[in-house]
Amino acid sequence: MSTDTLAIRAEIEQEIAGLTLPAALARTAEAEGERPAYSDKVGVDLSAGYAPGWRTVGWAELREQALDVAGALLAAGVRPGDRVALMASNRIEHVVADLGAVHAAAVSMSVYNTLSPDQVAYVAGHAEPTVAVLESADHLARWERALGATDALRTIVLIDAEPPAGDDRFVTWDAFVASGAAWRTEHAAELEARTAGIAPDDPLTILYTSGTTGNPKGVVLTHHAVLYECACSLRVAATTGHNDFISYLPFAHIAERTLGMYIPQVNGAHIHLIADPALLLGALGEVHPTRFFGVPRVWEKIKTGISAKLAAETDPDKRAQVEGALAVGLEYVEAQQAGATVSPELEARFQAADAGLLAFLRALLGLDRCEWAASAAAPMPLEVARFFAGLGMRIYDVYGMTETCAAVTSCGPDQFRLGTVGRALPGIEIALAEDGEILARGPVVSQGYYRQPDATAALIDADGWVHTGDIGELDEDGFLKVVDRKKEMIITSSGKNIAPSNIENYLKESPIVGHALVFGEGRPYVVAMLTLDAEIAPLVATQLGIPAGTSLAELAQHPAMLAVAQQAVDAANERLSRPEQVKAWELLPVEWTAESEELTPTLKLKRRVVHTKYADVLERLYA
Q1: Predicted TM-score of the model (pTM)
Q2: Measured distance CA(284)–CA(177) in Å, rounded
Q3: Which of 72, 152, 268, 538 has the smallest count of CB within 10 Å of its CB?
Q4: Which residues on adjacent β-strands are paired with residue 373?
Q5: What DSSP line would sit under 122-174, residue for residue?
Q6: Four-point Cα dihedral 565, 570, 576, 578, nearest 10
Q7: Interval 143-197: pLDDT, tens
């Protein structure tokens, strides 16, 4: 470890010495007072799409509500270290329930809303929570099997669902919170002592990874690891002023939990909670956030929408104006890489392009105030990053995993290079194993997998290095590039090593392609399965003269759409070496979603699920 890394780590450790999340929140609540903490759309009629109107809770009130929930948990017999499971959309009650569990010295665990009843039963049987907080009748149905999977579950709190008759384990959210408030009037000192007894190295949360294969594993994260992550991330992000943020990814996802829950509790912000990611674009147009995070698929969707509109412009002069402005924007952002300084001449050209068009385009997206925009969970396609650079935006790619408490590397204002996930965060070490696997070490590393010592031993070696399972490359300036998942690298029958995600990203540059899966393990050549983008493909179809209202299944068989898909394959193949080129493909008549099980809740491909589910398609492609 370098002297600089040690010195920075010691500096951050001093900042957070003895700190726990409840102590951090107490500081923020005192400093922020009645300033807005969280807002959501609960109670607003969204049946016709996005609608104005928010309900909001301030920082001081948020903490008081959390203490009421903590009181209710203590009254229900929750002990230090007990697990409290949460299944709810992004809404104020989810945050309050999580904080209540933390203040009761329990371990909160948000569970993905899309897990099947069997998966929920597995998690419940493995973690044995004593309390579950569920939002809806759908969530209750998903937990029905789990209720018999463990005897530990004594209390089920229902936010919107009706409690089943004759089962005294169930209680409504309002009644639960009210009981906690009443309990606090008599036992305030007991709750205060419970919270004060939390140590920095105590578990804060267990997050069950969504996983692309097998049963999910519970990642144990401590107060100390989370607070170190917050501190080093804030240093690199270098945001200023009071931040507005949109939270729309599940709180079971470490990135959303860190950005939408933990960092705000440390330094304050106004978080707008969106229950349905389909409403994100409307929220962007209303909130105009100063910080925004999106998995690559979100950025791809935004890019595709803009590209389709720009492509529809028939006036050659206007198209030339737009293309010229985007070229200046890209040149401007590229000139700032690795801390470089922009020349006065380029600065002047960018300011002119920005005033003339680029700022207007960013405002249309709701990203005109955004000073920090980031992407993680999978490698950002370079062409997507370059597109947003053309708008004058730097998308800061971030790399990490649940097991490292989110980010271990990041781009930022002072460490940015297109096509990379940045440099190591302050005090974090990054290295490559002999086979190219990315290794990470530092205070953010998880305690391991809950009740799975063998899996923990495979994750963290004797020297404290986390084996990420990703293949990477480090350049001479310390910038990391993620190539692909180690287990997902394809080795063809001729022995060629191929990274499928690189090919898939090229294919998805076509506006009509929603998802792509490349296959070729042990085969003589590479093939691909494609799905249509449910929003953009119908618009392109209309431009091609296909009647509006034609179903996706019909579009997938239409000669005109097949021709566009062929163009996407041809364009990708032009940029690939001969062994990487797609020799056969099929456009599927379906969408891939988390609900249909081809994707994880964070929109990553479950390759083995797709391989099994579409085995007949793969056989056809090799026939």
Answers
A1: 0.88
A2: 32
A3: 152
A4: 292, 395
A5: HHHHHH--SEEEE-SHHHHHHHTTGGGT-S---EEEESSSPPPTT-TTEEEHH
A6: 120
A7: 999 998 788 999 999 999 999 988 999 999 999 999 999 999 999 999 999 999 9
